Amino acid sequence: MSADMNARNWIVLPQLPNRQDWIARLSEAATAAGYVLHDWDENQAFDDAAPVLLLTASADEARSRQPDVSRIAAVLDAL
Q1: What are 23-58's pLDDT values in tens digits?
Q2: Residue 19 lies in a domain
């Protein structure tokens, strides 16, 4: 695992019925904070130069790639 991956922040968003609404809102918030929201489950390649928030539906995936759990946020409820 690269040191670069350890520096990434993750958001765990389970397969909720309104998941696309969550993604839209998270993307807006990420952009406002100067980040790009990237769906890791769809494509594991991303622009290394951009500050990226990685999104996954799997907490296990996030934990396997980010040993620092303080860099993982989870959405537990619907909007």
Answers
A1: 999 999 999 999 999 999 998 888 777 899 999 999
A2: yes
Is residue 47 one of the residues assigned to a domain? yes
| DSSP-assigned states of every residue in 6-43 | HT-EEEE----TTHHHHHHHHHHHHHHTT-EEEETTT-
DSSP structural state of residue 66: -
Per the CB < 8 A criterion, the answer to whether 76 and 18 are in contact is: no
Residue 1: pLDDT band (50, 70, 90) is: very low
The predicted model scores a pTM of 0.84
User: What is the domain extent for residue 32?
Assistant: 3-65
* Rounded Cα–Cα distance for residues 15 and 77 (Å): 11
